[in-house]
Structures are given as C-alpha cells and as structure tokens.
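#structure-requests
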Amino acid sequence: MSKLHDLHKMGQSTWLNYMRRDYITAGALRQAIADGIQGVTANAAVFAQTITQHHDYDQAIGQQMAEGTPYRAIHERLMVDDARRAADLLHLVYQESNSWDGYVSLEMNPALAQDAKEMVATAKHLLHGIDRANAMVEIPATLPGCEAIQTLIADCESLNITHIFTVTDFERAAQAYIAGLEHLLATQSTWRILPTAVASFSVGAIDNAIDPILRKKDRPDLCGKTAVALAKLLYQRYRQIFKGPRWDQLVRYNARPLRPKWTRTTPADPTLALTHYTNALIGSETITTFSLETLAAFIKNGRPTFSLTQDIGGAEAHLDALAKAGVDLDAIVHHLQAQYLAAGEEQYQVLIEAVTRRSVALALAA
C-alpha cells in the first residue's frame, strides 16, 4: 500500500499528468496504476518533447505516412492511439470504481476555445477515435466552452473541463454541467451510465502570477499561499452547488458531481517543497494531479491528512491581505485564462511542427 492508497481512503483520487508511448508500452504506466494512479491526462508539451528528443513514435509515424495520413494530421493519430492504450490499462480502475475514476483525458487544439460548435465537433471526433467509455476530452471553461460543455454532457460525453483559475470559472462550468445533465435526462432514455466531468483548477499558475507582484511590494510573507486559499474557497463553493433540491433530483439517476481536480501542482518557486500543493489540498471528492516529479516527492514525503477544509478563515484572511497590499487579484486571475490558452495554442502548434519535421526526416532517411 502506498500513500496514494491512503488518499483513496480519504476520498481523493490520484491522476497522473504524463503520457508517452514508451511509458505505456514499457510497463511504467501499468506499474503506476498498481501503485495507486487512477487516471491519466495527456498534453501537447509532453508529446512534442518526446517526438523531438526520443524515438518512441518513429515507427508509428512511418506507418501513418505509408497510409497516406497528411503530415499535419499525424499528431492526432498518435495521441488517440496512446489514449486508447492508456484507457485499456485503466479499464479495471474504471470498472472497480463504478466509473468514478479510470479515465484518460486528451487535449484538443486550444485554438478552438472560442468556438462552441468546433469544440463539440472536435470532441466527438476525438472520442469516437479513442472509442473507449473511460475517455475524456478537455474543454476550456470559456463562455463558448461552457456552451460546448452543456451540449456534450447532454450527448452523454464525459469531459475534463480545463483552464479554471477562479471560483467564477468553476461556477460557470458547474452550471453548464448540471444543465447538460438535466437536458440529457429530459430528452434521452437510452443512456446506461450518466456522463461525468472533472474541473481542472490550475493551482501553480496562480502563485506564479501573484508572487512576483508580492515580492515587488515587499510582501514575500504572502507568497505561495494564494492558490491554496482560492482552492479552499472553490471547494466550499463546490459543496454548496452540489447539494439541494435541484442536484438531489439528478442524484436519483446516479449523477456524479463536477469534482475539483487540482492541476499544475509542481511549484515554480524553488523554495517551496514539491509536495507544497499536494499536501495542502487533500479532501474528499477531489482529484489531485501529479507530474512524475511531484508523484515521486509525495510518495516519499507526502502527508495524507485532511487539509482542504482546514483554516478556511485563514484563506479568507489571506485574500484580504492581498487586497490591503494593493494586489488586484481578480484582474490578475481573470487574465490567466486567456494567457494560458494562448500559450497552449502555441505549444500545440509546436507539437504539429515537431511531428511534421520528424515525418520529413524519416521520409528522407528511407
């Protein structure tokens, strides 16, 4: 039994933000699942780095070229294939958890974040390609994203709702999720298991944006605390939204709440322990997402104790202290969504270009 299993007993799920071909085929993912990992998220950055620096995908790229797949479409085939392989390894977790966990989540092109119809079409295309019940596609919590969320949930598709940086982002996504479930139940009678979704709150990104401002204001004592404070308040709001008559009506049909999922949990500040966020955000009905680095650190130094509901007053006091220090928290965190979507779009293009370059190199070497 590992510390991850201790978190499971406390009601917190443990997912891994890492997926590449060799990690799957060499047995490392299978071992991670045995050690307590219950889900996997993939991102363009890991794929691009792997294709640029390793040979995991050379054979698969060659096969796609032989089949006539356009260079700029090969990356999608590779990602879908990896997602399918990971989903198969996670299927037992999916079954044993009664579809609570055991998911693989795949990123779509962030360039679509402002077009609801394109997001819906692309999500369905990717999920059809993966063809596994325990697959999710990422949808950002933009205004068009929330429109897509409602449509996709109503069509019985499970989602990883991303780019959540504020409690308001979470509330908007939660209302879209609930409305989608209500529409599904009102219009369809063929579903076997209701779809589910998770809400990825970007923890480390918040402190990365706030802490440099605090240092300039000579308030280093407030650094490394804002993200945890916001996460604690988001969790309180989560518990308020997913109770009461409206939600109880959905629970009768075995609806699942939109669980907060803590992501970007590797601190950028080298003075903070790698377990800073994972230790501070332990609570039931949540998911913590590990990088390989934070996973190793938590297994070694993690403290599996309930922390998410502790010192809510302190979290509120910290936000008051930010305001008194002249930090416009709302303006900063609301800007983060657009900033990270732009960065994600750029990284996705890096992936496409990396696959194209490797495809050309393999063709020339043949």
